[in-house]
Amino acid sequence: MKNKRASAWLLSIVLVFTVILSACSGGNNEAGNGKESAGGDASPSPSASAPASESASQPASEENREPVTLKFISWKDSYNELYALFHEKYPWITIEQIPVNGQPIMEIIATLEAAGTPADVTEIDQDLISFDQNGLVDDLTPYIEKDLILQDVTFPDGFFDTMTYNNKKLAVPMVDVPMWILVNKDLLAKNGLEMPPNDWTYDDFRDIAKKLTNPDAGEYGLTTQPEFQMRLLSTKAIADGHAANLQYMNEDLTQSVMNSPDVINDVKWLQEFVTKDGSLLSNAAATEQGDVTRDFINGKTGFAIGGDWVLPNLKKNANFEWDVLPFPKGKVSQPGYTIYGPLALLAGSKHKEEAFLWLSFQFTKEAQKWKIDQGANASVIDDELTAYYEQTPMWQGKNIAAVQLAKENAKIQPGVTIPGWGEYNWNNIMNDIIFGEGDINEIIPQTEAWNKKTLELRATLK
């Protein structure tokens, strides 16, 4: 019954879009998913993964194997080397990437299903609950329980928490996307400052940002980027004991504490970088100055927030010395920030055994080392992989200890299995308050309304 409902739903989606496309022939409407990053590239849609011991790897014999091509829906066009590593391990399986190109992934799944060429695995572009409720993804629990690779690795605490709902493991991370504070070391030296230690504090962060600010030279402590409220602000709330999870969520991810007095004071703290310190420009002021401060690679700002997606551009094009630091230390802890992007096995796949091999392959050492080479985190606990950070060309000459510390302390961005997450206005309201003229008093009623809504939705879900 589940497959019939899913097929009917998928067919209805295709018919709806056929009507829309017919009515709008000649139009071209592309939805962009990226955002401006510290290094000048668009942030990736997140994804995540993890390694395994070589002895536990499953056999890869070609004997009596029919060739299989897996259709993999993904944003990334940079996985070709990873596909080759997978094919080397499982020579009868080839990966065919189905690009997203700004199209909602549910539409892509529906189109391929209706054409009789269903996709096998996919990255996820919205909440996993919707995919589960529509019967589009398989519960991975039975696959994981018998997989030799996954049974032989050690996962961090809470590894599956953000991708489990109603006791079903709906996805695994494709890539563990880490974040750090990017540092302009030349600007530090120009102002007589040394590189801060890895156990620096939020007070250090603010003090140094003020010392780097010289409006006459067009230089400022912080890059004008939304990531400071998106990533740093809710991380600081955890570091100071004001929230249990990122995006101001409580311990069991059922309610937001964004409306608490302590979190509101955290918001005021970052707002003062703009209104009092002058070390962070508002959106209007940044535009007035030609948008130079919006991009860390211009060399005019001291700190930015970046992840693996900014590294290639920085390594190739930055004309100043840069490095990374972990997020600062708060009153009770020093958490970092990471994104797990879901990788799911589609219920309509005709090659589920082979498709799950692609999922479990993400946790082999060869896959994990390749991802570390790209600037991502290892997704499992393994001494060999921890040591590999010091060997990879990606981090030669940089603050490797900061990269390792950021990995060890990382908190995982929640959301994909929280009911009504798309209606939780934590991002836009903070952007308006920090970088615009938003009313801080709106936090309380908006948070109260969402807390009520998410509980109601949770009660209706089976």
Report the β-strand fraction as a percent range: 5-15%
Count of DSSP H/I helices = 18
Dominant shape:
globular
CATH topology of the largest domain: D-Maltodextrin-Binding Protein, domain 2
Question: What is the succession of H and E elements?
Answer: HEHEHEHHHEEEHHEHHHEHEEHHHHEHH
The CATH superfamily label of the largest domain reads Periplasmic binding protein-like II
Major sheet attributes: 9 strands, mixed
- Summarize model confidence as the mean pLDDT: 88
In a few lines, what is going on in this structure?
By secondary structure, the chain is an alpha/beta fold. The chain has 18 helices and eleven strands.
Walk me through this protein's architecture.
- By secondary structure, this protein is an alpha/beta fold.
- The protein folds into 2 domains: 35-177 and 339-411, D-Maltodextrin-Binding Protein, domain 2 (3-Layer(aba) Sandwich), CATH 3.40.190.10; 179-338 and 416-460, 3-Layer(aba) Sandwich (D-Maltodextrin-Binding Protein, domain 2).
- The protein contains 18 helices and 11 strands.
- It has helices spanning 2-23, 80-89, 105-114, 128-133, 141-146, 148-151, 185-190, 202-211, 227-239, 261-277, 283-288, 311-317, 352-361, 365-373, 383-388, 400-408, 426-435, 443-460; strands at 68-74, 93-99, 121-123, 164-165, 168-169, 172-184, 220-222, 301-307, 322-325, 336-345, 410-412.
- The strands form 2 sheets. Strands 1, 2, 3, 6, 7, 8, 9, 10 and 11 form a 9-stranded mixed sheet that branches. A two-stranded antiparallel sheet has the order 4-5.
- A hairpin with a 2-residue loop joins β4 (164-165) and β5 (168-169).
- α9 packs across α10 (261-277) and α10 (261-277) packs parallel to α17.
- The longest helix has 22 residues, at 2-23.
- The radius of gyration is 23 Å and the shape is globular.
- The chain starts with a helix and ends with a helix.
- It comes from Cohnella lupini.
- Pfam families: SBP_bac_1.
